[in-house]
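yo

u said u wanted the structure for the complex thing, so here. seqs first:
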Amino acid sequence: MNRSLFLSNVRTADGQAVSVSIVDGRIEALGAHLQAQPDAALEDGGGALLLPGFVEGHTHLDKSHWGQPWYRNEVGPALTDRISNEREWRKTSGHDAGTQSLALARAFVQAGTTRLRTHVDVDTDAGLRYLEGVLATRQTLRDVMDMQIVAFPQSGMLIRPGTVGLLGEALAAGADVLGALDPALIDGDPAASLNTTFELAQRYGKPIDIHLHEPGEVGAFSLKLLLDRVAATGMQGRVVVSHAFCLGALPERERDVLLERLAHLRVALLTSAPASRPVPPLKICKEKGVTIFGGNDGIRDTWTPYGVPDMLERAMLIGLRYDLRRDDDLALAFGCVSDTAAEGCGFDNYGLRSGARADLVLVEADTLAHAIVSRPKRKLVMANGQIVVRNGEWLKAA
Amino acid sequence: MNRSLFLSNVRTADGQAVSVSIVDGRIEALGAHLQAQPDAALEDGGGALLLPGFVEGHTHLDKSHWGQPWYRNEVGPALTDRISNEREWRKTSGHDAGTQSLALARAFVQAGTTRLRTHVDVDTDAGLRYLEGVLATRQTLRDVMDMQIVAFPQSGMLIRPGTVGLLGEALAAGADVLGALDPALIDGDPAASLNTTFELAQRYGKPIDIHLHEPGEVGAFSLKLLLDRVAATGMQGRVVVSHAFCLGALPERERDVLLERLAHLRVALLTSAPASRPVPPLKICKEKGVTIFGGNDGIRDTWTPYGVPDMLERAMLIGLRYDLRRDDDLALAFGCVSDTAAEGCGFDNYGLRSGARADLVLVEADTLAHAIVSRPKRKLVMANGQIVVRNGEWLKAA
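structre next:
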């Protein structure tokens, strides 16, 4: 392992020509007139655009059939159709969460993602089996990816007795975050469901990331109950609400009251910016001080055939969903898969700055906006100060 | 030029292993147990998925800066901001419609598109200059692409005296279709604007393709006026309404009356399936018998930084917009960029069938849905019976 590496001849998103000095896996310095240390390995960036390693704020590594023969989707349209279909398929298909999470996580690194939050199903059929697979993947990729694991009750929590205990075991076994799911429309008892979630999170000292698909007024109701509990338990800054479709479909005044409470309680929002659903208003969230970041959600699984493990493509889809056309607006879309996602998930030592972990991506693109719309092959990916990918290909087995 | 070509070892979207016999640029036969003619050139498809050449139903080849240095978008949000900004930029930037339309059209062929409808700006500043550029591109690519040109009054028609005359000249000079634009919100006089459009189309014996961005009730009003004129002039089957955002935002009953009239008058709809706008309901249109097909709209121009000349990606975006997840639903998305687009635009001799023009695409994909979500490099593109692209690269200059 090279202690020092000097990356010259790259451009930052603001157009500046810079070099980066990297020591012991950290960015020691980044600027226009740096000199390489005598013992540093030298890397010429060839004038490429320099970006920070990308952040995936919400995916489901354990569900994917990435790299496997095509899964023919004949699933019904309801949320419960999809949940049942998946649980049955995972029991009977031989799908292995360890193998599949590794295949997909490696594809993420190959496309420049070095920090990732994944939700992993915990249910009374599978127990902690999927979690064990993803924990093994995290261990395998520990040198190149910083992975947060959310213990996620995909099949419901209160409606499946035994699930609460399993979630506790998952947190004890290495999950970093407690997941949750639609306390009204899946669990059927929003107050009790949220009480249980907050009690569990506090018992294990873990943050919360809840899937809230509930639409319109019912979603707003669940969200209000959730915010009450954030305040009551002192969990400010430790809760993420994923999807939050309801915030895309409320009257302005009602929505803004919720946004102001979200900002005040430092509850962050995650969006995959789906083209077919209402979504929280990105720019208004930012104006109100709400942290909102991006993620792919599931990639090529029994829920959806779509998705690629490329955060530049997700930034593009965010840009399309929010009609971001100006270059300065596209920078917001990129923020959703970089610094804002790091902030929302709590990944530290992030960014293109002295002292941050040296997670870097080089692409051949004129500008940041150009990189987002063209999604070029990654010329170079560096994780923890080590070059792991060149011209889109892995340099070493992991 | 080989008179005969025999393409063996390919799979159709329904999973059948077939060969294709091609003679004089046409599909002579396609099936499971064909024999090559003795004089045929032989091509082994390597088990790849066989698709018909793609159809781009709506783009703007003349506006793009494809392949040029990045255009920094700092444009205001209104339609009129974008129109004025573009007209000024095209006057002063040295942008050349001939060069740019050729670059983009070649990129379309490279990704498997062999039929394309492009709208070309006609206005009182530029006259027919952009049309001349695109006519030259059509001539250059005549052996590999079937191109329809729409004479499009991007800056308005009645509000810019002289435009009607220029549109007539454009139709006389080789444009195939008369374009039009928002008769109420741009032209300010919907009845007069539509009367002029229909008179001009009839005088030159050309079909119509109108950009209708007008939202909700005003769009519905313009659409109703348009349908009245289709009936009055006997132009059934010869009119396309592009975008038709209004049909995504009307009360069901009002919308369905319009859809039923569209079906009855055989007026087709074009959608780019934008993620940020209301869109006509795809499946309901199909149920009502309305032809609805897809297109990219502008690609990397002063309006939008987005877009790639790849109809598989557009099919993916259509699938995402309409939440099409099942394999049978993704086939509908592909229809929007293949047979339904050929029908909507009136491209004849289209498809994977005996007698059709031999426009074929091979991709490495398990299934049609897999091809759409993964958008692999084109293994082979054949246009008019000639192989023009292999492994994503052109074989000959054009």
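Residues 139 and 204 of chain A are 22 Å apart (CA to CA). Chain A touches chain B through 37 residues (CB under 8 Å).
cya
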